[in-house]
Amino acid sequence: MNNKIKIATFNIWKNDGEFPNRIFKLNNELKSNNFDIICLQEDYESEEFSSSKYLNKSLEFNYISTKTRRKVRNNQLSSSNLTILSKYKIKLIDEIFFNKNEKEERACQIIEVNIKDKKILLVNIHLSHISEQERISQIKKILQYLKKYNKLYNMTMFCGDLNALPNSKEIALIKENAFRDENIQFSHKDGVTIDYIFYKSDEKIKVHSKIVLKDYSDHYCLVSTFNFK
After folding, report:
1. Does the pTM exceed 0.90?
2. Cβ distance 158 to 196 under 8 Å?
3. H or E element: which one contains 37?
4. Looking at the 3D structure of the chain, how many domains does it have?
5. pLDDT of res. 148
6. What b/e string do you get for 151-164 counting C-beta neighbours within 10 Å, with b at 16 or more?
């Protein structure tokens, strides 16, 4: 197999900013960066337009989307989805909803990625921005759920917009459960890091992380390249 996997996580900011023009411009950028897997948060979808479906027209990746945070935006009913775009075969294992059907509903996707002889369990998440305790509760629920799956996979990944700073209790809780991350750059225009790609594996893996694509959202795109030895 190709021993290198390039994974990105990117909050694409619903329909805010110069929308949809910034999504149109982002299309070519995603293709030229040659990502293998893209985890999207705040992926806008209405009856008239879907950001991820538009972006995937040129990528032609495997596609799984979870509708969440449905409400009226600019006089139109829309959702702010979690979406996975993958060059490799993917399967939805489960969706976990927090505060379902409430104004600040949050969710996560649990996805299986098959890359020849490797099986990866991938969590794509957007945690609450309201309170530390709410985020801790959400993380605990996910970690408890993952316990029954971890041993079945070569690597487990925990990606997305966590709305938590690197020195927070939320991030400490994830690291206490043997997850690691390599990014040291800011992931948001306000000069903070709140987006992560955590991973856990018994295999020897070399990981390089960096920030790219700073002009298309209030978040920046975080990409990690995993080299299996």
Report:
1. yes
2. yes
3. strand 37-45
4. 1
5. 84
6. eebbbbbbbbbbbb
Identify the DSSP state of 216.
S
Cis, peptide link before residue 20, omega less than 30° from 0: yes
Q: How far apart are alpha carbons 8 and 132 in whole angstroms? A: 25
Query: What is the extent of the structural domain holding 197?
Result: 4-228
Per-residue b or e along 61-93, where b marks 16 or more CB atoms closer than 10 Å to that residue's CB: bbebbbbbbeeebeeeebbbbbbbbbbbebeee
Which pLDDT tens digit goes with each residue over 106-134? 999 999 999 878 899 999 999 999 899 99
Q: Is 214 helix (H, G, I), strand (E, B) or coil?
A: coil
Whether 121 contacts 5, CB under 8 Å = no
CATH number of the domain encompassing residue 96: 3.60.10.10
Give, in order, the Cα–Cα distances in Å from 209 to each of 5, 128, 183, 185.
12, 24, 5, 9
> 30, 38, 52: which is closest to 5 by C-alpha?
38
Structure tokens that stand for 46 in this block: 């209405």
Q: If you average pLDDT over every residue of the chain, what do you get?
A: 93
